Write a sequence for this structure.
């Protein structure tokens, strides 16, 4: 029961910080990185798993590599957000969320700048809903 309470608190922290960041990203096409950094710290500090930090670093490294490959088209806030998703649910959640976000962004990304945090947030909440609430 304590584990479920801790996971729900971590999900509440994630939603409380990431939803305003996603809305800010839609309107301004940029996100301040300090709330994302605070979210990463809170999610890693409240995790019962010792692998949370490793998942967070793996998400940061993977998305920073994608940023380098894309020549800076992927923003640093997207990299930090990927780290927070890794800290929330591990590498499995990060990979599933990335696939959902890519599928959501593909129709709209024809030669223009598209915010990537909102599709990542939608994908994360979708995967969490399917996994935790439907049990799939």
């Amino acid at each position: 029961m304590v584990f479920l309470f801790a996971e729900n608190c971590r999900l509440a922290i994630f939603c409380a910080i990431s939803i305003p960041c996603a809305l800010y990203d839609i309107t301004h096409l940029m996100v301040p990185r300090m709330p994302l950094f605070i979210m990463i710290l809170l999610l890693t500090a409240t995790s019962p798993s010792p692998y949370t930090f490793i998942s967070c670093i793996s998400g940061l490294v993977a998305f920073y590599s994608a940023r380098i490959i894309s020549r800076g088209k992927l923003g640093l806030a997207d990299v930090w957000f990927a780290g927070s998703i890794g800290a929330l649910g591990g590498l499995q959640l990060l990979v599933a969320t990335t696939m959902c976000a890519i599928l959501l962004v593909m129709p709209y990304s024809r030669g223009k700048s598209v915010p990537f945090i909102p599709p990542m947030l939608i994908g994360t909440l979708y995967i969490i809903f399917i996994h935790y609430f439907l049990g799939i």
